[in-house]
Amino acid sequence: MQINTFEEYQETYQKSINQPEEFWAGIASNFLWKKKWDNVLSWDFASPSIKWFEGAKLNITENCLDRHLAEKGDTPAIVWEPNDPEKESITLTYRVLHEQVCRFANVLKKNGVQKGDRVCIYMPMVPELAVAVLACARIGAVHSVVFGGFSAKSIADRINDAACKVVVTADGAFRGNKQIQLKEVIDDALIGCPTIEKVIVLTHTRTPVSMLKGRDCWWEDEIKLVDSNCPAEEMNAEDMLFILYTSGSTGKPKGVVHTCGGYMVYAGYTFSNVFNYQPGEVYFCTADIGWITGHSYIVYGPLSQGATTLMFEGIPTYPNASRFWDIVEKHQVNILYTAPTAIRSLMGFGTAPVQGKDLSSLRVLGSVGEPINEEAWHWFDEEIGKKNCPIVDTWWQTETGGIMISPIAFVTPTKPSFATLPLPGIQPILVDEQGKEIEGNGVNGNLCIKFPWPGMLRTTYGDHERCRLTYFSTYQNLYFTGDGCLRDEDGYYRITGRVDDVINVSGHRIGTAEVENAINMHAGVIESAVVGYPHDVKGQGIFAFVIYPGLSKDEDLTRKDILQTVTRIIGAIAKPDKILFVSGLPKTRSGKIMRRILRKVAEGDTSNLGDISTLLDPAVVQEIIDKSKQL
Ligand code: 6R9
């Protein structure tokens, strides 16, 4: 399944385009199926309706666990590194992980979870999070993991959207020198969640929590009451595997749906190839399982390939900026997959935290989540990879399920800040605003994909029309990514960032409308407009223009109040970096906010605002410019 030379890549790519069904059937035959498919692919982007490996039966956990037991039972599946470096790390072999997953799967069953039921998982980065995810998959329940940084309201919205039956959580989480009271947040969320019947709570931080009789139970107690034998549920290839919520240009996050067969094949194939994973190697992805990167490249991709995946509970700067490098040295990490925002933040500490650390085990480096700037690319290459490790700059999305455009380690010649070339099976196309294909090289356009791949989303939960409208209606017969893209003279792809109203803050997708809604909920706020602006560490920062009549002299306190409101409504990750109070917003005569102008102001570039004559009240622009200079 692994590609070893550039010529082989080119041949494989050609084949994957000319005979996609044959190609993917070949890849899929490397996995364990209970029954083979009747049909490799049927599709129609207009509906959209996408079906891969129809008729096939499988369980993804048999691919991630059972099939490795005979030869790799004693191989580490998960190595866990705690937040506190003084505490012991934990290793779960494939045998132990299998047993824990089966046990917890039985706990879910005992608590009423059946095939097809939705389970919300809100947990710290501990091995039990992976166990809970896999236990759902074991019994055919659909997991919906919610990142530990989201607020009670965000959790409630997600639980209600999917009508989840059970929540799996923990008392709390450690993050650097902070503690997050997860159970408390869940308790707040559940006030408005009538579908939840049971809450299973893992003991982790040992903070006191309230346990509601009849609803809440302890993970540790429950697993004692069940045995470790849990046959894997037979799933159809197109049965739902999980829902993961992500932000778009409208206010409400969407539940992206992935299915069992195609997702498994795609996550496994891309993991094995992009990182050139070799048996016995230690692979460390620094993402959180609350995001798609964690789903595909901490859990499903690596485990389906029998890899050793390292899970880290903490943050890169705790207890100091050497933490990642200490982990690499301690666990002899061979492959490190991280995000530009982490690289930039560590770069800020200079080279001292890297000095004296033995990074010689590293073989491949990876980047994901946002465009990586050249400076960060070179720092990663020189200081961490010692110019000896290929960097795979992997472009993909929650919706794509797995890596789409990326170098293949040791195969594709890399170029700083370029995601380079499409993986086999991926057919990117650049289009102009009208949807006309932009051919040739040295061109810019909106990035679309013109042919299905096994890992792509199938729908948005509970609202198929929204899936059609968001991804398949902008351009006919194309999947629209929402990203702008350059194809250079060599045919290499560089993702230039979102062309819609989505901001990418430290690799986290945040919809401007979502933040505006949250700000507008604050008493006193009449209206707001939110835009992204370049931020040295986060990639993009959040800039909010807020109309707040009757603002008292203490602007700063009001700013903090608004931040508090946003934290309550969405979570701390959506807090604006800058808030500017204004008396009006630049609107067109039809009432549309001209974000182009606000973006320029946020960037601090007000010299050329372009044509503002179509504005209802051009005078507000001058006021905004003057005020922004005082900020
Ligand atoms: C995997 C993930 C998706 C958006 C995507 C794009 C940006 C991700 C990138 C990248 C440039 C890369 N993005 N990887 N931009 N280069 N290597 O991040 O999924 O959270 O859904 O975000 O992130 O803008 O559209 P998700």
Automatic annotation (TrEMBL):
Q: Which residues form the AMP-dependent synthetase/ligase domain?
A: 66-452
The gene that this protein is the product of is acs
InterPro entries (alphabetical): Ac_CoA_lig (IPR011904), ACAS_N (IPR032387), AMP-bd_C (IPR025110), AMP-bd_C_sf (IPR045851), AMP-binding_CS (IPR020845), AMP-dep_synth/lig_dom (IPR000873), ANL_N_sf (IPR042099)
What keywords appear on the UniProt entry? Acetylation, ATP-binding, Ligase, Nucleotide-binding
What Enzyme Commission number does this protein have?
A: 6.2.1.1
Of which family is this protein a member? Belongs to the ATP-dependent AMP-binding enzyme family.
Its top-level enzyme class, in one word, is ligase
Protein name per the record: Acetate--CoA ligase
Ranges for domain Acetyl-coenzyme A synthetase N-terminal: 9-64
Question: Does the keyword Acetylation belong to this entry?
Answer: yes
Domain (AMP-binding enzyme C-terminal) ranges: 514-592
One molecular function GO term is:
acetate-CoA ligase activity
